[in-house]
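Input for the complex:
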Amino acid sequence: MIKNIQEWLLLLGIYGGVVLIGNWIGYDVMPVGAVPGMLILIGICLIGLILGKVMPGDIPSVAYVAIIGVLFSMPWIPGSDLVVSFTNEVNLLAITTPILAYAGIAIGRSWTDFVKLGWRSIVVAMCVMVGTFLGSALIAEVILRMQGII
Amino acid sequence: MKQQLTNIWKDWRLHAIVLGIVLVTEMVGTHSFTVGPGVILLLPMLYAILIGLGLFFTPLVKDKQSKNAEPLIVLGVTLLIAKIGVIIGPALPEIIAAGPALLLQEFGNLATILVALPVAVTLGLKRESIGMTHSVAREPNVGLIMDKYGFSSPEGRGVMAIYIFGTVFGAVFMGLISGFLATWTPLDPLSFAMASGIGSGSMMAAASGSLVAAFPAMEQQILAFAGASNLLSLSTGLYMSIFIGLPLTEKLYDVMTRRKKTEAKREVKEGA
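Predicted:
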């Protein structure tokens, strides 16, 4: 357990550093100003990862991470405005760039499988994605209009 | 997290490569160009995945780096979910107000069956098409199909094909089409924000990231709705497939192939 926490902390620290540098170059936020927000996010991750390990049931840690993130930033919780303003300094897109860089390196190993897919599979795969995206957007549009939200 | 993380932090070569990719892509920044009535957005994260994939084929990335990168995606998504959590929190009153739309748009994921199954059958795919089109084929759905039909079944091959495509090109594809569709169609960006949550962290990030780049004024709302929808898809997606998606795909497949067979018979008779 201690070993796990140590590994998580080190890896999240590396992630955090890379994100802060991307956040600086791409979104003009000085790293010093974004450090508190990053520390809060890493803290939320750590609590969620530990809960996922020690709590009974097969609930994935990301579920705990999401719930804790929402709890800390709900308007009814004292101090939530601080959590929100600090974490606002860390851009979402600055977090996704390193994730997808790691993903690119990892999926290289699936490339041989990918090349073996026929053109028909690729056409169907694109239809699958466009289908779910447009289907959901259409339903959301109808309901949001009925409710008068948009 | 199921994988054992052991000393991956020591893989400095991997982290240095990723830092290099981030530096280059963030310096290049976001670019967009118009195609007909829509806009195609090129975001740093899209270059990042392509550069990462390209580097895999150079001596810079060894097999060890590629293996170590895999659990790091999961950990990175954890950080992303924490960020989405603190975006959802302050928007909670708004999200509750939009609750009905959020819940019902989950049924839109079934549209993939109506769109993709006829295409698959027309292209001449057999029972593979059931595995391919019953859902967007992320991990829980792959598990469901393997459990029900077996790994080497045609359905299993079908679901793996879509899973592989989604893994390799899902984020890039979603990032490109979401910005394009949101600028080209009259639908509201918030509707597309909800649609971005299809149960995959990286696809959600790419799709909603493109929306934010196209409609920067609505950033917080777009990210909150996309994040909430993605969490909802993650928690309901499997049950949606078990109880509605898969049975519906089976039924439609039977109807479509039966009609095809009778048509073929009639043609044979008329020909004779």
